[in-house]
Amino acid sequence: MDAAIRLRNLTLAIGAFFTSYGNSAGILKQARRSYLDFNATAPLRAEAREACLAAFELAGNASSIHGEGRAARAVIEQARADVAELAGVSPRGVTFTASGTEAANLVLTPAIAAPGRAPPVRLILSAGEHACVLKGHRFAAAAVEIAPLGDDGRIDLDALARMVVGREGPVMLALQGANNETGILQPVAEAAAIVHAGGGIVVCDAVQLAGRAPCGAGELGADFLIVSAHKLGGPKGAGALVAASSQMGVALPLLRGGGQERGLRAGTENVAAIAGFGAAARLAMAEIANESPRLAGLREALAVHIASVAPDAVIFGAGVQRLPNTLCFAIPGIGAETLVIALDLAGIAVSSGAACSSGKVTRSHVLDAMGVDPALAAGAIRLSLGWSSDEADIAHFGQAFGQIVARMRRGRSAA
To answer: What are the φ and ψ backbone dihedral angles of 241, each rounded to 5 degrees?
Structure first.
């Protein structure tokens, strides 16, 4: 059966179930919506919306030299400076793209210009990378290797060293700063030291790090960072490739045409989306010191609710450093599809693993790489918090989650 039809039928069946049995528990009477899916996308922040709207009023093309063009150019350059500050680099190191995915496709190529370093001849990907990294590179298939994860979800540094040391030619390593599904933080600086010792290049997908944990290129030891506006509360449709040094670049762009973005990304810039990106980056910088501990407290409150309702629940990555906003868990015997839809009907938006597969609910390749039992991995749910999350959202989740799990388990026992 087609996956979309199967998902629709499941949604209808669960809706009918709660229509018949859920009203007495108040499940369908929830007027509140609680959004717990920030790792998929963050709601647009008011300041970013205002910046977008103001930019929409600008008539000029940023490549034009008249006053209207210069006004549009000034907006782009201010946003470039804001994103550069977030990433700890010079503004000349920021190349705007339409998404983090485009930035990954742009930089994951052997055609890298790095003074004093030879172009990479191999690409090493960690087994937990986002699909845009696993599928979006421009290396020949025979030149790509996968570095394993340990059962803690972190890249195996000993295995990485064996893939680098003593092998012919420099490599490019693509390694997430934080996993989008589990929130597990990767040892980017340690991995970068191994790769740099062999003259290689490190690309860090910092999409989930930005605004939630330190993401400076210098702190991470990365040569390139990938960031995205809509994870920060900016608009969808804007991303950036960030070079640690303005001397580094991509010798073979994806989009060729005009000379926009210093020749690295042709096409008239999306001024409004870029303006919103800059506003979101400024807010992230200003708030991170207080926001990270606040989100960590809310995340731990979610964990308490989960443990009280389902003591057998497994929280993935509980023993290692994770993003303060992310909690990924599974309950043995309860499928992810069923729980995601039931929570949605109760007014709570969550994800099953990553939310980048055209609505498909599939087992996580990240949990597979961690050696998680497939039956347990099939039930993985991701909760992710952000700027608008509050204690009321946590309480809403706790109440609905308890009712849903209890009803599901009673139904299973009766069967």
So the answer is: -100, 125
Dihedral over alpha carbons 126, 128, 131, 135 (to 10 degrees): 30
Would you say residue 10 has pLDDT above 80?
no
Run of H or E residues at 330: strand 326-330
pTM: 0.90
Which residues form the catalytic set? 356
* Distance separating alpha carbons of residues 143 and 136, to the nearest angstrom: 14
What is the separation, in whole angstroms, between the first and last Cα of the chain? 25
H/E stretch holding 54: helix 46-56
Average pLDDT in the 364-376 region? 95
147 within 8 A of 162, measured Cβ to Cβ: no
Asked if residue 122 lies in contact with residue 169, where contact means CB atoms within 8 angstroms, the answer is yes
In order of their start, the domains of the chain are: 3-41+288-414 (3.90.1150.10), 46-283 (3.40.640.10)
Q: Kindly compute the dihedral angle of the four CA atoms of residues 13, 384, 38, 104, in this order, to the nearest 10 degrees.
A: -110
Q: What's the rounded Cα separation, in Å, for the pair 10 and 375?
A: 19
Which is higher by pLDDT, 27 or 292?
Answer: 292
Separation between Cα atoms, residue 51 and residue 200, nearest integer Å: 39
Which residue in the block uniquely carries the two structure tokens 């295995």?
A: 159
Distances (CA, A) of 330 to 103, 337, 382: 32, 12, 9
